[in-house]
Write a structure and sequence with these properties.
This protein is 61% helix and 2% strand. The chain has 182 residues and is mostly helical. The protein has one domain: Up-down Bundle (Ferritin), CATH 1.20.1260. Strands 1-2 form a two-stranded antiparallel ribbon. The radius of gyration is 20 Å and the shape is elongated.
C-alpha cells in the first residue's frame, strides 16, 4: 500500500513498483564488515568441526551444533548480501587478517593447533575459552562498524550486525556458565 499525497487516497502497488525512498546505501565499511565476518565465522566452523571427535559432552555437542548451523547460515546470507551489491565474496580462509593483524578474536595457528591437539574435558574447557575470545572479537567488529560514520545504516546490515551482537552476547553468557561447571 502506498499512502496518497494530502487529499489523495491510498493505493495498492505491486512489489516491483515499491521504491526505497530512504536512499540509504551500503558503505565501504559495511562491505569490509561483511567480508571480514565471513572469515571470522569460517574459523568458528573450523573450531566446531574439531568437537565431535574430541568431546564426550552432549552439552558441548549441542552448543557446537547451534554455532555451526547459525554461522553457516549467516555465511550464506553475507555472501548473498555482497553479491547482490556487486561485490565478490572473499575466500572464507583469506579473511583472517585485519590489516597486518589477525581480526579481533581470531585464534592464531598455534592456538588452533593446541585446540586440535587436546581432547576430553581439557578440550571442552579450551574450546569454551577460545570460542568466548572468538565471539568477543565479533562484538569488537560490530562496535567498529557502528562507530564508523555512515556505516551500519542500510536496513539489512543494521539488522544483521545487531543480531550478531545479541547472539554472540547470549552465547558468551552460555559458555561462561558452562565453564563454571569445570
Amino acid at each position: 500500500m502506498q499512502p496518497g499525497a494530502p487529499g489523495q487516497a491510498t493505493r495498492r502497488i505491486s512489489a516491483s513498483q515499491a521504491v526505497d525512498v530512504s536512499r540509504v546505501q551500503h558503505t565501504d565499511a559495511d562491505v569490509r564488515f561483511m567480508q571480514g565476518m565471513i572469515g571470522h565465522h569460517s574459523q568458528a566452523l573450523e573450531m566446531t568441526a574439531l568437537l565431535p571427535s574430541r568431546t564426550t559432552s552432549e552439552q558441548m555437542r549441542r552448543l557446537a551444533l547451534r554455532i555451526e548451523v547459525s554461522q553457516a547460515d549467516e555465511i550464506k546470507m553475507m555472501k548473498s548480501w555482497l553479491e547482490s551489491r556487486g561485490v565478490s565474496a572473499p575466500d572464507a580462509h583469506a579473511q583472517h587478517m585485519h590489516g597486518d593483524m589477525l581480526m579481533p578474536g581470531m585464534l592464531t595457528a598455534d592456538e588452533m593447533a593446541t585446540l586440535a591437539g587436546s581432547s576430553g574435558p581439557a578440550f571442552d574447557r579450551l574450546f569454551l575459552q577460545s570460542m568466548i575470545k572468538h565471539h568477543e572479537g565479533a562484538l569488537m567488529m560490530v562496535k567498529e562498524l557502528f562507530s564508523t560514520p555512515g556505516a551500519g545504516q542500510e536496513s539489512e546490515i543494521f539488522a544483521f550486525a545487531s543480531d550478531v551482537d545479541a547472539d554472540q552476547r547470549m552465547e558468551i553468557n552460555r559458555m561462561r556458565a558452562m565453564l563454571e561447571e569445570f
